[in-house]
Amino acid sequence: MSILDLPDEMLLCILNKSNNINALYSLVDVNERFDRLALDSIYIRGLDFTGNDKSQEFHQFLDRFWTSILRRIHHQINKFTLGQPSIERLLYVVDYPQLYSLSLVFCQPEIILNYLIGGDSILVRLVNKQITHFNLKTEFRTTELFD
């Protein structure tokens, strides 16, 4: 018996137990069935890119994720959790029309000022016009800015 013999319901249960970023990265473009399951709108509503985000492998991961996956699903994403290295690589490259929740995780709190200063900042525009839940987490504390 192979994994391809399992019914879709069982495969979705397995996917729901795994990290959706890693599952997307591993399953997209494998075959048509895995594409359909991994790119299901329910499964990709919320994406968390705060894993091991300081390694070179993570940057290569982001490059492939952007070129082969994110361009296909950006219009379906509702929630984003981004670490410092992934903000410019993911948030600034495409519009996310369904995005309403944004969590940012920073190791150095002063760096957030670079993203929040200036009226033409994409982050400022998102927070002012689209985001209804914004969470900022630093290594020192978490601050709920508005909900």
Automatic annotation (TrEMBL):
InterPro entries: F-box_dom (IPR001810)
Span of domain F-box: 1-47
Protein name: F-box domain-containing protein
Organism encoding this protein: Rotaria socialis
